[in-house]
Amino acid sequence: MNQQQLIETAYAMVADDKGLLAMDESTPTCHKRFAKLNIPQTEEFRRDYRELLVTTPGLNEAISGAILFDETIRQQTKNGTPFIKVLQEAGIIPGIKVDKSTTPLAGFQGEKITQGLDGLRERLEEYAQLGARFAKWRAVITIGEAIPTPGCLEANAHLLARYAALSQEAGLVPIVEPEVLMDGPHTLRRCYEVTEQTLRMVFAQLSAQRVLLEGMILKPNMVVPGLDCPTQNSIEEVADATITCFRRTVPAAVPGVAFLSGGQSSELASARLNAMNVKYKSHVPWALSFSFARAIQQPGMGIWGGDSANVEAAQEAMYHRARCNWAARRGEYSAEMESATA
Ligand code: 13P
Fold this sequence. Notes:
Elements lengths: L2 H11 L5 E4 L4 H10 L6 H12 L8 E6 L1 H4 L9 H7 L3 E5 L4 E3 L7 E3 L5 H11 L3 E8 L8 H20 L3 E8 L7 H21 L8 E2 L16 H15 L6 E4 L6 H15 L6 E6 L1 H11 L6 H19 L5 H5 L3
Parallel strand pairs: 1-2, 1-10, 2-3, 3-6, 6-7, 7-8, 8-9, 9-10
Antiparallel strand pairs: 4-5
Helix pairs in contact: 7-8, 8-9, 9-10, 10-11, 10-12, 11-12
The structure holds 1,3-dihydroxyacetonephosphate.
Catalytic activity: beta-D-fructose 1,6-bisphosphate = D-glyceraldehyde 3-phosphate + dihydroxyacetone phosphate
Family: Belongs to the class I fructose-bisphosphate aldolase family.
Pfam family, one: Glycolytic
């Protein structure tokens, strides 16, 4: 393992106020999003859509890295350029989702575990040869009555740590993603408690598995009230709760915290990230960045709708969301940025 190279890649992933574009939806997830917009659910449309994303003009002004899916890392533009080459030429670091999605955790009603450790060493080697420089693994934690259990938290954290160690062995920076889901009526306080427990367990396991903290990126949820909670806290309360939680749990050696959006609206995700940077940027040891899928892609995907005539307008929307989040990293995002292009 080349530690220096891992550290350099991890810092490059959060440099210059840029963030990550998560475009690693598995085929079933991609189809779910296409179905909502009546976009045909075929390989051709998936390829067309991913081409639209990677060829968005100016994307590299706000995006440092893109997370690809196994199918996408092997695909090419219509004129035959591999997507990975398009990204590399734009100075965007290519990465790859390596988990194989979630399945019910045996013996734990309502809880999930992530699959994909079997054969991972060989897959990582292949992805590194294809040009990937970082990897991603997502664990899912559900809040409900009497869940999450310590057993579920430990199993998921252990897998994240084993995956992270294997990634570093292959020279890939691991994005460690423990996602506490927003679904449900739980309060911000409850999300805080669960996120704190989760992160404590994750960092204990990362340490036990000898993961180099300087050569990884954390991809967590923000601390937010559940989507069905009657009390929807202010942007500032979310920023305060999130940073309090991370200061107590995330070691200073980690170069960056790159949030997932998790089903928040695009504007709210940008506004909350902005609030964190306005108040805390110069008082926390890690970059406060983004690794959004839905909060970058959703408006543009809607504009595209599967119609090639809309590619340019859709790319403008992708660029706009990427720029809004770049501004949020600088603490310069404002509601006016939204109306300027409306
Ligand atoms: P969202 O930003 O849509 O939550 O997706 C991020 C991600 O990569 C989930 O694994």
